[in-house]
Amino acid sequence: MAARQKKQVDERVKNLQNKIYKEVYVLIMIVCSLSILIKFFQLGVSLDNVLTEWLIIFVSSAYYYVRTAYLGILTDEIEVHDSNSKVKLSTKNIIYGIVIGLLFAIIFGLNSAFNYADSTQQAIEYFFVVFLVSLMIYVPLFVGVMALTYKAAKKKSDQVVQKNLED
């Protein structure tokens, strides 16, 4: 029996397709984020009603992160990023965690001020109380999640790269 031959793949076409897929991913993330913001601020919809958008953002991001770690590509991506950027990717992940926690605190503070206060003074008070409590909860939570997932994914990717080098 003749061995099955692999189908020839044009590298240029494959690279262009991958570039398009990356652009589509970014576009989907932007559309979902805008949908959340519009529904939350203009329509007054609670965060529970944008669960689909949250799931799309979270699941696709988590899938990409896990997939690159298990293929060993994440190690290479980190290396390339760190050599081309002034700020290491691990530091950026901590900054992203702080920014996300800060955004959540601001959103929850504004939500409390607009939806539950009866006067301007009470709105200012509600905003700052909810903002500070949310800040204390969400900044450490998101920094921890971002740092731990980065470290775990990098460790797994390093293991896959090491195994591939041994084979």
Structure description:
The chain is mostly helical and 167 residues long. The protein is 84% helix and 0% strand. The protein has five helices and no strands. Helix 2 runs parallel beside helix 5. It is elongated. The mean pLDDT is 90.
Q: List SSEs in N-to-C order.
A: HHHHH
Output the structural class.
Answer: mainly alpha
What's the β-strand tally?
Answer: 0
The count of helical stretches stands at: 5
What's the end-to-end separation, in Å? 29 Å
Low-confidence stretches: none
Task: List its salient traits.
elongated, 5 helices, mainly alpha
Short précis:
By secondary structure, the chain is mainly α. It is 84% helix and 0% strand.
Write the layout of secondary structure elements.
Blueprint: H1 11-42, H2 51-71, H3 73-84, H4 89-116, H5 120-166
Helix pairs in contact: 1-2, 2-5, 3-5, 4-5
